[in-house]
Amino acid sequence: MSVDALFQPFKIKNLTLPNRIVMAPMTRSFSPNGIPTSDVAGYYRRRAEGGVGLIVTEGTVIERPAARNDVNVPVFHGEALPQWKSVVDEVHAAGGLIAPQIWHVGSARGQGADWTPLGKVDSPSGFTLPGKAKYEPMTEEDVADTIAAFGKSARAARDVGFDAVEIHGAHGYLIDQFFWGGLNAREDRWGGPTIADRTRFGVEVVKAIREGVGDDLPVILRLSQWKQQDYAARIAETPDQLVEWLAPLSDAGVDVFHCSQRRFWEPEFEGSDLNFAGWTKKLIGKPTITVGSVGLDGEFIAAFGGEGSRPASLDGLIRRLENEEFDLVAVGRALLADPQWVNKIRDGRTSELQNFEREALATLS
Ligand SMILES: Cc1cc2nc3c(=O)[nH]c(=O)nc-3n(C[C@H](O)[C@H](O)[C@H](O)COP(=O)(O)O)c2cc1C
């Protein structure tokens, strides 16, 4: 099957991506004390050289005491910014485009049994799991300061020269903790029984990010129904609820919705084959990115348990892209395993595609 659909340019605001392939954000924990090194810059440069249309960096955190849950996750403020500029410069020199994924982990725990938070934990209700309170809920001041810190990081992204910004609103981290009724039991304006109530924090973050980057830089928002705390959790059970959730975020200034699934082919609601990105594009009318097991025969949560995956056909994906179900396709592990994955797909060098093995998680090759 022709791969031409993947190699059409795509315009978002003033930014033209050369093709439809986005590198998915992947935490690597190779930034000692939060500062990205020249190895990190080289790792992203190799993906730019390999033909990726838009690189989204690993999650990098805003300036809040406990925004990260691992000391080697990169920060996005202070001393780290000149290092991020080197990353951007190397990617641009290789002809690539790059967006940081702006992150705050909220109450999501770090690796290892002995993990202790790096400061006062921010979360809507202090829950780590539904009904399991462990921390104090955020005060009104914490909420205001956190929204302001998101805005500041967006300004920094623009100043450093990034081409777009992605907000991490998925996978059960801080912004998603506000969306999810399981972790948001607040009774003030940041919570409430309806999805529209719980969307308000995300809306204010989007507005702050938009103000920080200005009108021209594209703002991408990553969302998921599933949570790392509960793979079966859902924010929206129906298309109407999806609109209740996403329309205010769209109005607040999101340009592209990045709809995270573990397997892109799974339908989001009964009665249609459309996936999460497909429904979002149809109902909200903004461009969308799909993701989840593209080009591989196993999914990524299993990869953390050590499972490898083999190359898989792209035909089903390309058929959906040709039908304009979504606009862009994010690829994670296939690009960890092989920086040249995009060029190989473009050139039909399928016999050169590599397996994804757990060893790829341990290096910045
Ligand atoms: C090592 C690793 C780290 C990840 N870190 C992040 C992250 O920082 N932010 C995020 O939104 N998703 C993260 N993800 C999820 C990926 O962006 C992607 O959605 C997932 O791997 C599915 O895509 P794939 O099947 O192509 O790998 C991570 C995935 C992997 C494998």
Automatic annotation (TrEMBL):
Which top-rank group of organisms is this from?
Answer: Bacteria
Cofactor(s) essential for the protein? FMN; [4Fe-4S] cluster
Keyword Hydrolase present in the record's keywords: the answer is: no
Signal peptide location = none
**Swiss-Prot/TrEMBL keywords:** Flavoprotein, FMN, Iron, Iron-sulfur, Metal-binding, Oxidoreductase
Where in this chain does the record put each NADH:flavin oxidoreductase/NADH oxidase N-terminal domain?
Answer: 6-295
Which InterPro entries does the protein's record reference? NADH:flavin_oxidoreductase, OxRdtase_FMN_N
State the name under which the record lists this protein: NADH:flavin oxidoreductase
Q: What is the originating organism of this protein?
A: Brevundimonas nasdae
| Organism placement in taxonomy | Bacteria, Pseudomonadati, Pseudomonadota, Alphaproteobacteria, Caulobacterales
